[in-house]
Write a structure and sequence with these properties.
Helix content: 40-55%
Distance between the termini: 38 Å
Number of helices: 8
Number of strands: 8
CATH topology of the largest domain: Arc Repressor Mutant, subunit A
Largest sheet: 6 strands, antiparallel
Length: 222
């Protein structure tokens, strides 16, 4: 491993492209701009620079795909980010809705040596507070077979595997209701008209979740 980290902006871009390309083969300029809250023209310029550095393959009007070097850099930052999130929750008393933004700031300020010492302190956790898998030092990730809650069938019993960390208010809402990774729930209804998903937990609590929130919860069959 190396401590020769790229600039903050380059790191943010490769990580965003990695996250977006998990759902499709290429990350579009529009999606990258929305994820990073920047102008599409700025994204186009940066993608050209990243291509020159061998981090992405970029084709105008199609999007960007990370090279092996770019993917390695993205996963190095993802590992650092998720370990920091775990440390903040377990040792500094942060709530799970607050750790993401704090980790975003800290991940560019620490070294790889610090990251691995943090992993040792935490006893090498497999998942972060939101259920996302933490990449191993070599960049490998365990295979996932999860799907969004809004795609579950009615009367299906599922276990929450992970929850998107992009919506702090949504995390707060779910946390207050105990809907966290590891929770077992039964899908009582999926309304076609508006996408609202109604679930029941093991204590009999019933909760109705709007489509965006339900789509941010990833589950696996119980």
């Amino acid at each position: 491993m190396t401590d020769q980290s790229p600039s903050t902006s380059v790191g943010d871009y490769v990580k965003a492209i990695w996250e977006l390309s998990r759902a499709s083969s290429d990350a579009s300029t529009k999606d990258i701009a929305a994820r990073l809250s920047v102008a599409p023209a700025s994204v186009t310029n940066m993608l050209g620079r990243l291509q020159e550095r061998g981090l992405v393959e970029y084709e105008r009007y199609r999007g960007a795909l990370l090279t092996e070097r770019g993917r390695s850099e993205a996963l190095r930052l993802v590992r650092r980010h998720r370990l920091i999130e775990t440390f903040l929750l377990e040792h500094l008393g942060y709530s799970w809705e607050d750790v993401h933004e704090e980790a975003e700031r800290l991940e560019h300020a620490v070294s790889d040596v610090f990251t691995e010492r943090l992993a040792d302190l935490l006893l090498h956790p497999a998942h972060d507070p939101h259920g996302d898998p933490i990449p191993k030092p070599d960049g490998t990730l365990p295979a996932e077979e999860t799907f969004p809650l809004d795609e579950a069938a009615e009367d299906q019993t599922v276990v929450i595997s992970r929850v998107s960390d992009n919506n702090a208010s949504g995390l707060s809402y779910l946390g207050e209701r105990g809907l966290r990774p590891g929770s077992r729930i039964r899908v009582r209804e999926v309304r076609e008209v508006d996408g609202v998903v109604t679930v029941e937990d093991e204590e009999g609590g019933v909760f109705s979740l709007g489509r965006p929130l339900a789509a941010s919860i990833f589950v696996e069959p119980a």
